[in-house]
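call fold(seq) -> tokens
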Amino acid sequence: MKASPTDQNELLRLQSADTRLTQLEHTAKNLPQTKELQSLQPEVDALRARWIARTGELEDARTELKRVESDVEVVEARMARDTARAQQTSSMKDVQALENELAALRKRRDDLEEIELTVMERVEEFEASLAAVEGERAELGARVHALEAARGEELAKIDAQRASLAKDRETIAATIPTDLIELYEKQRARYGIGAAALLHGVSLGSNVKLTESDLAVIRRAAADDVVLCPDSGAILIRNEESGL
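ret:
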């Protein structure tokens, strides 16, 4: 393939833009905030599991408390009913039966009130435990939010640089012949780099000094011949500092 030295030299500017774009992509994927967020995820998951467990315990205790309170209300309603009946009847037999039942109901109410007190204490303990977990979650959530905000700011900066570089790349590519661009893209897709300078006999595509036989082949090539690096596969850009 033939291409003017000027067009070939422009490939270095194109490669520089592509290299920087690749670096920005790597930076975006490996931001320290992302790594820290990933390291915090197990703690976030563990706290969420604890929150779910504590919430379930509290809900169960509150449900049990409501049931006990309902039982107390039923017993007290029966006590009120029996008391009223005892005051209204003139039958000693009925009065005695009602008093026996009232005694049993008072015992039942006392037992239920003890249970109610115990359950209320459990509810308070679970509320305190849940509040502690929610406090930890709020603190961790604030850290996560701050990290996400910082990451968002960094990504916004990177996106701005990407947009600017993409525009510069488009401008550069528009000045280079299509067949040369196609070869550059082919080599870059295959080997990771499309063009590299030859500096004092060293290919900057592989950072290896070329053999004398390889350099001899390159010396025989015309200035407008497109030469590929035997090691990296990149288009070699030759100039006065190539050492040929």
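The mean pLDDT is 95.
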